[in-house]
């Protein structure tokens, strides 16, 4: 398979920060170098969801896992959409149509029908956004996604390490100007409003508003749908922070757990594709693993966008209908950090999605580790998300945090 490579410009990760001298410093420098190399190599692959580039990234990651001594390494395939844009725009258009019917209807039945259509569109949108139920998961143009599975060790307990392979399409919806207000609020509160908040509010207005509000909501929803679809014109971003950093962190964590295994624990490393399109690879893996994992003996750790600056742990994520993580799992992360001399990460409410949300919906204990800077993700879904802008020190801190959580859980 031909690997779609990007320009080699901006491929080196951020310059190493000063580290201690002696054996500990040598080990840290080596870890930073491995992480920087993996980020640069993966960011060089144009790996949009369900594209040949995602397949190339999967084969690259499979080779890296084999180098680390993982067993049963395989690349799996599944059918999924290439972007969330068509499905989300379809929901917005349906809600806009319902609003117009309700606004123009002279009979009570017509007005009620329009509002019901808008309400159904909002409900279906929330189901799709959260991953609870995706009726449009294979909406054309669909493609074949690729994920990677590998195993370390054996035992009655299962630790699952997850980091998605694919990179997002850029577009006007990811303009820093549009994200600035939400980032500022999140910086103060640790709560990031839904990235789809404005369309969600417009759909609510289509369901509940008066006649004037219905017309305004319809116009706004048509505009939002056009804005979302605009991203289909673009190529995938390098995705160095989101999420080559997470994959590099997962590989470094796998190295550590291979060198010093967890007691009585099987480690599954899952690198799903199609997360950016709506968590398609994670859904496919969970469908295969369903019934094989005992929630009482399983923990899933997600690593996503971990090179921003400040490690965080998610307490909840999603749109108006969020997926919430178990408080005891969030506390496990903070307790493990404290026990091993690390800074406990702040609990965070994310207005988007990460793969561990589907594990929670499936009833599995899970934690989702990310990082932020100034309330947001630097260069989020932008062409400027290049390796030289990744905080490698933050990636390493997230690896140390994930390892602390894994050992605290396994030794409990």
Description:
The protein is α/β, with parallel strands linked by helices and 412 residues long. The protein has 2 domains: 22-78 and 144-170 and 235-411, Aminopeptidase; 85-137 and 192-232. It contains 12 helices and 9 strands. The longest helix is centred in the N-terminal third of the chain and has 23 residues, at 108-130. The protein is elongated and about 80 Å long. Residues 1-27 are annotated as: Disordered. This is Peptidase family M28. Residues 1-13 have a biased composition (Polar residues). Residues 237-403 form the Peptidase M28 domain.
Using brief descriptors, characterize the structure shown.
412 residues; alpha/beta; Aminopeptidase; 9-stranded mixed sheet; 12 helices; 9 strands; elongated; disordered N terminus
């Amino acid at each position: 398979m031909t690997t779609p490579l990007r320009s080699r410009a901006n491929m080196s990760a951020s310059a190493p920060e000063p580290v201690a001298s002696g054996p500990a410093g040598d080990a840290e420098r080596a870890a930073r170098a491995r992480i920087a190399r993996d980020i640069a190599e993966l960011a060089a692959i144009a790996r949009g969801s369900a594209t040949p580039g995602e397949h190339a990234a999967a084969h690259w990651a499979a080779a890296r896992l084999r180098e680390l001594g993982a067993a049963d390494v395989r690349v799996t395939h599944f059918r999924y959409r290439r972007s969330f844009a068509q499905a989300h725009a379809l929901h917005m258009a349906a809600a806009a149509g319902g609003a117009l019917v309700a606004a123009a209807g002279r009979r009570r039945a017509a007005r009620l029908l329009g509002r019901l259509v808008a309400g159904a569109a909002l409900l279906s949108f929330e189901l799709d956004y959260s991953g609870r139920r995706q009726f449009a998961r294979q909406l054309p143009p669909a493609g074949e996604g690729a994920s990677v599975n590998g195993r370390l060790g054996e035992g009655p307990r299962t630790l699952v390490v997850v980091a998605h392979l694919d990179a997002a399409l850029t577009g006007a919806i990811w303009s820093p100007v549009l994200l600035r207000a939400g980032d500022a609020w999140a910086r103060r509160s640790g709560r990031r409003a839904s990235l789809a908040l404005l369309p969600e509010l417009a759909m609510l207005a289509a369901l509940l508003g008066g006649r004037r509000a219905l017309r305004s909501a319809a116009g706004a929803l048509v505009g939002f749908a056009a804005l979302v679809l605009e991203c289909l014109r673009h190529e995938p971003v390098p995705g160095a922070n989101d999420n080559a950093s997470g994959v590099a962190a997962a590989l470094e964590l796998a190295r550590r757990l291979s060198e010093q295994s967890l007691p009585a624990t099987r480690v599954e490393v899952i690198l799903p594709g199609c997360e950016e399109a709506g968590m398609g690879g994670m859904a496919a893996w969970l469908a295969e693993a369903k019934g094989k994992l005992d929630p009482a003996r399983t923990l899933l750790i997600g690593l996503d966008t971990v090179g921003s600056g400040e490690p965080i742990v998610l307490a909840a994520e999603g749109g108006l209908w969020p997926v919430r993580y178990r408080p005891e799992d969030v506390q496990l992360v903070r307790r493990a950090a404290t026990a091993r001399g690390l800074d406990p990460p702040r609990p965070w409410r994310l207005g988007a999605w990460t793969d561990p949300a589907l594990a929670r919906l499936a009833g599995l204990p899970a934690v989702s580790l990310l990082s932020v800077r100034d309330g947001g993700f630097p260069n989020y879904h932008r062409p400027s998300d290049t390796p030289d802008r990744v905080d490698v020190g933050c990636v390493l801190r997230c690896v140390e945090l994930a390892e602390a959580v894994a050992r605290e859980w396994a030794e409990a």
